[in-house]
Give the backbone structure.
Amino acid sequence: MTGHIEEITLDTLLPRVFSREELPYSEIWRKKVVFHRGKRYLVESASGGGKSSLAAFMMGSRDDYEGTLLFDGRDTRSLSIAEWQDIRRSNIAYLPQELALFPELSAIDNIRLKAEISCAADMSRIDRWLDRLGISDRRDFPAGKLSIGQQQRVALIRSLCQPFDFIILDEPVSHLDEANNRIAALIVEEEAERQGAGIISFSVGNPLLVENSEKLNL
């Protein structure tokens, strides 16, 4: 694919593991849902409702679902490995729930790995994000020695260090207090606004406090 992704469409999507179950009410599963570039969405779910599965489907790391998932009308199952690599590099940013930091590398080196590949965020902007999120004094600490809340903030900054049309955030602030939640939300909003991008945030209990988000129940 080339250029921007303007819409992500779920058409009667359902994880195969759910196909024989009687599902509770959902505004997403087995429905037609369109996520638009430039809009903000909060997808709320009970534990086990499939939010991490849906994020993985959108990132192309899993395809064990029924129905269709489309980028601007194209079935994502038709995308080649090279096309998925381009999409992950240029169109869709992702913060996984498990964070996927390299524990032996410092906080700043974890961030630099993404920033240097994408060339989308200079160090002055990264330094400002570290300072605003209160972890500038932890930049040289091994990620594995940081608290889980500090690791979340590092991973959030790393996810922003690339071009994107959508950013997908799976439980991005589950270990942050309200003050840091609001700062994180503002940083995400500012960067999404700068890039004209959409925000899709998944939450079980502590949502990212992005204003004017359309709420959907998974």
Remarks:
- The chain has one domain: 7-217.
- The CA atoms of residues 63 and 77 lie 8 Å apart.
